[in-house]
Write a structure and sequence with these properties.
This protein is an alpha+beta fold. It folds into two domains: about 120 residues, no CATH class; about 160 residues, no CATH class. About 30% of the residues lie in helices and about 30% in strands. The protein is built from three helices and 20 strands. The strands form six sheets. The protein has a five-stranded mixed β-sheet with strand order 6-3-4-11-8, with no helix packed on it. The longest helix has about 90 residues.
Length: about 400
Amino acid sequence: MKISVFNKRTGGKMRTFFCVLLALVCSAPVLTGCGSSGTCTLTTNITPEGTGTVSRKPNKTSFAPGKKVTITAIPADGYKFVGWTVTEGQAQFADANSATTTITLGANPTATIVASFRLDQFNSKITYGSFNDPRDGQSYRTVKIGNVTWMAENLNFEMNDSKCGGVNAATGLQYGQLYMWSNRSACPPGWLLPMRQDWHGLIQATGGEQAAGRSLKSARGWQSGGNGTDEFGFSAIPEDNDGLNGSWWSTEESNAGLGFSNIYYVFINSNSNSMVEAAGIGGMRHIRCIQLDKEQMAARERQMEEERQREQQRLEGQRQQQLENQRLQRERQEENQRLAREREEQQRQQRLENQRLQKERQEQQRQQRLEEQRLQKEKREQQRQQRQPRR
């Protein structure tokens, strides 16, 4: 029997397969809708198949109307109980989130309840802390590695542009949300997105770049024999059902202020023992948040303030450089304009000089013509006088 169950942690529906474990009967003629035999049918299922079992107390096949029945969800090795759900009919839980609880059946002759399990990626030898996100009530395990407290599971707070990583139908493993880097403010109050130095510190504290992947990966959920030892309780799981890669955002950019930027992140591959840093232009990745004590937070705030001041100084330096470049450009333009004006004046003076010289040449040529005309006239006069007879 295939049933869709609303999953509170992922904010969506997951399709799962149910395995019928018990058929309990409970009814009475005085209850509207009860069967003619005076009993009602109660069916208990599990999801996903093979992830656990359910026991009941009292352990019998029929109950009187209104009888309280104690039910217990027993996870298979490597799985954990998630919660109870009514999928058909009526049943009231004393605590739907408790593995052992009591139910009271309603008047409907048939009721079906489901025990949901999921793969437990956590290390049973680690003592985890816990944290409830006040924004949506979700609970997270936490673990301290070195001097930093980390979320031991991926953040699952839904935001604009975030994407549900989904649920593995075969294991119930919940991947948490995938986030754009624009969602880097997703961490709950009091928690921070790790800086590069935080990831570097984690890598060094867990064996170095070439070994940290294996020691941080969960012992379950990775494909191709890529499960880790999870000896520090970080319980890293892959991004999705392919089980091959996991990646998590840092806060910093590279090439910032140069017109483009790459965003730093760390990633683990199922076929490798490494956790390494990379930078990319985008994509969607998981988020692990960190929590610092008062001294660490004060130091981080001082560091962030120093970085903010350095960034301001860098931006101010860029602004001053831009102003200086603009001043130099203006000076070059003014100098070019001055030189252009000088060239134009020189050309004008040259034109005037050329005109003066041309006028002088023209005047000289005119005077020379006049002189030639005078001499010719004198010569003609002399010739005329020579031709006249003497008296």
